[in-house]
Sequence to fold (116 residues):
Amino acid sequence: MRVFMIAVVISAGNLLAGSALAADAAAGEAKFKQLCATCHGPTGQGDGPASAALNPSPRDMSDAEWQASVDDEHLKTVITQGGAAVGLAPTMTAFGHALKGDDLDNVIAYIRSLDD
Fold:
């Protein structure tokens, strides 16, 4: 009986963890649309209204190959310090003043959801 109860508790924890990840991505989507969609588009495909004027064009963050090529720390650096900080386009603005802590983690969760 004790083993059964432990299994139930673990299963419930896994369900709650899955819900938390979904909630994080949903919260991140709102921040992404507020701060990033002008260039990257609402679904991260690099097709935002300002993208036509940018050279190089904004990254398509829905590309699965690109997603696999970068880790979350790289994304955090680019988002908080800007593209120039990692040798990318200087037109990628630093958002360290606007995205910190949970907001930053939520935006990264949303970016990671784009290749689903």
